[in-house]
Amino acid sequence: MPAQSSSPAPGSAWTFTWQQWGLPALCAALIGSAASLTAVTQTPPQVPPPVAWEPTGPRTTWRDISFIVPAGVQGSNKGDFYDMVGPGIRGGRFGQCAIVVLGDVPAGADLGRQAHELLTTGLAGLGQRVTYVRGQPDLTVGRSADGWSWVELSGIVGDGRARIMLIVRGATVVPIMAIATSANGCVGLLGETTPNSNTITWLWLYHSLKVAGSTPSTHLREQIIGRWDALSVSTGGQVGMSQGETYAPNGRYTYASMLGADGGSGFLTKDFTGDGRYVVEGNRLTIFPDRGAPQTRLIHIVEDREATVPPRSTVRLCQINVGVVGGPYERCLPRSVP
User: Is residue 200 part of a domain?
Assistant: First the structure.
């Protein structure tokens, strides 16, 4: 199951306090203030720093796609498919991960249904059955900075995880399937946090993929514009955090995070804010803070289409950060609805 914020029942003291202080609204005001300027600030050009984390290693070409085999797995060309098997980047004692790249197959009329059928059929051949958190398969869609589009499904297999991505190539799709045993961070559900850091092995493969015939795109420059924020509350409702980032069309950004804690003797808050310039090149976001050192991170933007009636979508901006301990991890913020 994906990690979820545990909120107390409506009407509880914590909920009242949170609403009373209005932290989400305050955070939204903070992150919207600096980036709302329409004038472009003239600043000298700056050289982006190296990306905080990116896939490294020799590039493997199989048929007409190429990628960097993630650390912790062993790649093998099996002719009809290419597989990668092992514990993953930080799997260690937490079990195994297997990723299989298949050749082109004809694209179905409904890519979501096709992804579901390929995933369930493939797992049935292993004697496994996939289930979905919301009961029905939700479809995640996006477009890479290299110009190829994709759809994804992820689900639960026993106490492990499974995922399939279809790379769209006109009349055909390239399926990539993965399965991981319990507690292995190779693949996970959208928004899930595992002991081994949220699908980073899968993201290594994704961010290294190159598909022949694709044309690099600058669409992420337009997609990132807007406000992205999220509110989380700890189990028991003792600590809450609001985080947000705004990217304006003029190349300015601002961020704000607010931490609130109920210490028993009173409700305490602490906020962190900042602003500066930003640049998006391909799948790299570089921020040049007005105060502080510049940073570059890999990003991608995903749309989660939930199988509800009526259908509901959530767009998320995902960035790969590097923690003080534990290495790289992905953090996703949903787009704020106006």
Answer: yes
Query: Rounded to a whole number, what is the distance in angstroms from the first to the last CA of the chain?
Result: 29
Q: Which two tokens stand for residue 39?
A: 């004038």
**326 and 300 housed in the same domain:** yes
**242 CB neighbour count, 10 Å cutoff:** 25
Task: Determine the structural domain holding residue 69 and report its residue range.
Answer: 59-211
Q: Tens digit of pLDDT per residue, the chain (338 long)? A: 444 433 333 333 323 333 333 444 433 444 444 444 434 444 555 788 999 999 999 999 999 999 999 999 999 999 999 999 998 887 667 788 899 999 999 999 999 999 999 999 999 988 889 998 888 888 999 999 999 999 999 988 888 889 999 999 999 999 999 998 877 768 877 666 554 455 889 999 999 999 999 999 999 999 999 999 987 766 566 777 788 999 999 999 999 988 777 666 555 666 778 999 999 999 999 999 999 999 999 999 999 998 888 888 999 999 999 987 768 888 899 999 76
Residue 90 and residue 27 share a domain: no
Q: How far is CA 7 from the centre of its chain?
A: 23
Taking alpha carbons only, the member of 298, 319, 294, 247 closest to residue 43 is: 294
Which two three-digit tokens encode residue 31? 């992150």
> Residue 19 in 3-state DSSP?
helix
Hey, is 113 helix, strand or coil?
Answer: helix
Say how many domains are in the chain. Answer: 2
Q: Counting every residue, how long is the chain?
A: 338
Strand partners, 175: 166
Contact 260/18 with Cβ under 8 angstroms?
yes
Residues in contact with 27: Cβ distance below 8 Å, sequence separation at least 6, in sequence order: 229, 242, 243, 244, 256, 257, 258, 271
Whole-Å CA distances, 161 to 186, 231, 245: 9, 26, 30
Query: Residue written as tokens 């260690």?
Result: 92
Q: Please give the single-letter amino acid code of residue 285.
A: L
Helix (H) or strand (E) holding 233: strand 226-233
Side-chain-side CA neighbours of residue 253 (13 Å)? 22
Reading the block at residue 128, the tokens are: 């496994």
